Amino acid sequence: MKTKLSVYERLCQVKWLSKSYTLKFLFIAFLGIHIPLIGIIFYLLVGPANLQPLPVFLIVLVLTLVATALTLYLLNGLLFPLKQSKLALENYLNKQQLPKLPQSYSDEAGILMDKLQVSLLSLDNMIQEKRDLASLLSHDLKQPLAIIGNTAEAIALTTDPIKLQKFSANLKKMASDQIQMLDGILQVLNLDMHVTKEEQLTIVPIESVLNDVVESVVLQADLKGVKIETAYKYDGLAYVQLEIFPQMVKNILHNAIKFSYPGSTIKLQVYQEKNWLNIAIIDKGKGFTEEQAKQLFDRFAKAGQKGTNGEASTGIGLHICQKMISLQGGTITAYSEGPEKGATFTIRIPNKEVIEAEIELENAVMTYA
Q1: How far apart are CA 256 and CA 269, in angstroms?
Q2: Which of 63, 273, 323, 339 could pair with 39 as two cysteines, CB 3.0-4.6 Å apart?
């Protein structure tokens, strides 16, 4: 069934009116004012030679009333985007119903609807994420804390050194797992409030930054018997945000170590591809199926699994990495040939150093020419 177009939508189809909401109002007002004038001129041209005051008065009155009614009708129709925006807000606030506002109009009212649609969707996504975090905390934190309490009671009642050592190791592992999970949740909360701005990006030597990141995870790798190798096919400058970029790479390396087997090697490769800086982290660990790959970056992904040494996984890490890289206008992809065949995670970020160098070269060539 074809939906009837509103006055606003019809006026948006007029090319010279499409980009200005103010111009639409002025156009309707202009028509409303001039309809009586046009009617009188027409009557003077085709009417009788001997004009009588009463017919002229009646014609002017009728045309004025018609023009007023038509103008009010058209102006009311022109309020369509404002009415739709108001209804969308009321439905969301009162019924938690997400709107479907049109986003194809380019005038001020169209931009308002577009921004409102995007804002409400972002707000709803943020609220849902907070609910998920609350569910995660109540489910994945409450139970381990209860176990820690029971283990502490058991320690108080036993004198067997072997049991004490076992209980102590369990407490340490559970505490470590919960700290890791809470760190991930705090990162999600911080990212929700974070917006990357141009002035927050910094040009840094990529090799130096990545070497520091590798150094920070070497202990974790050594304890598991995993080796990390680096290969820099590009060792120049990168345009990144220092608050989040190293943490992003570190999260992927932590993930690779978790799912690698003792004695294996993780490779960190850096290479330039046109205006993109690529960082590939390759392991020979547990890998994943094609179906799991579709869920890897979902928040609290069900595809999450334990590491090769039974390390816990909340499913938050990769979701955080995706949010981090998107803040810099980049992407992150995951590939695996299948279970037990390892995985490759590739981070791609725009490298402004190269972009600026190319623009400078082009300007220099044009100036020389």
Answers
A1: 14
A2: 63
What angle, rounded to 10 degrees, do the helices at 142-157 and 161-192 form?
160
pLDDT digits (tens, 9 = 90+) for 191-231: 555 544 454 678 888 999 999 989 888 888 888 899 999 99
Domain that holds residue 162: 132-192
Tokens encoding 335: 């590939």
Backbone angles phi and psi of 105, in degrees to 5 = -95, 145
On the question of pLDDT at 122 being above 50, the answer is yes
Is 176 in the same domain as 69?
Answer: no
Residue 61 structure tokens: 């009155």
- Picking from 192, 222, 239, the residue at the C-terminal end of a domain is 192
Which helix (H) or strand (E) segment holds residue 46: the answer is helix 21-46
Regarding whether 352 and 211 lie in a shared domain, the answer is yes
CA distance 22 to 13: 15
> Quick one: 205 and 340 in the same domain?
yes
Q: Does the CA dihedral 239-243-245-250 come out positive or negative?
A: positive
Amino acid at 288: F
Residues 269, 307 share a domain: yes
